[in-house]
Amino acid sequence: MTDLYDYRAAVECASAELAATKGMHEDLRERIEILAHTEYKIADRESYVRFISADTAFHVAIARLARNHLLLQAVESVRCQMERIMYAAIDIGYYGEVPGREHRGILEAIIKRDSPRARQLMYEHIFGSKDKVVRLAIGNARQPS
After folding, report:
1. Gap between the terminal Cα atoms of the chain
2. What is the CA radius of gyration of the chain?
3. Which helix or strand (DSSP H or E) is residue 141 part of?
4. What's the pLDDT at 113?
């Protein structure tokens, strides 16, 4: 799992930084803003399933903004792995915290063309997610069968 998060950080942080450097087409901005504002209700599986789809679309959209085909392929691949983790979490009743604020911050940095901030916010978002997953795994390992 550590390898997955390290790889994810490498490709998604680079994507966010490059996206901020290259700027955003106005027609994409509205779509990505909608994705960045997608949230879910705790203990509402259907809303979380919709969120998982929007979360993946958000991260892939950032990679598309980077306009680098290899980064896009890498992000699409790593998102498949992340979706598995997210679906496994809801199967045990864990939804995590709502990352909408983090998504909006990343998007704002890209819009402002602040590439170091976009990279840093993506890094914090990814490793914050990792910390939640690790806490979840440790908590479940301690519970009696």
Report:
1. 23
2. 15
3. helix 115-142
4. 97
10, 26, 36, 12: CA torsion to nearest 10? 0
Instruction: Kindly tell me the sign of the dihedral angle through the C-alpha atoms of 81, 87, 91, 95.
Output: positive
H-run or E-run covering 17? helix 2-22
Q: Which of 104, 97, 105 is nearest to 48 (CA)?
A: 97
The reported pLDDT for the residue numbered 134 is 79
Distance CA 12, CA 120 (A): 11
Cα separation, 91 vs 112, whole angstroms: 38
* Crossing angle of the two packed helices 69-91 and 2-22, in degrees rounded to 10: 130
Q: pLDDT: is 43 or 98 the higher one?
A: 43
Give the type of residue at 99.
Answer: P
Give per-residue burial for 74-105: e unless 16+ CB within 10 Å, then b: bbeebbeebeebbeebbeeebbbeebbebbeb
For the entire predicted model, the pTM comes to: 0.89
3-state secondary structure of 24: coil
Separation in Å, CA 56 to CA 80, 103, 117, 141: 8, 11, 21, 28
- Cα–Cα distance between 28 and 91 in angstroms, integer? 33
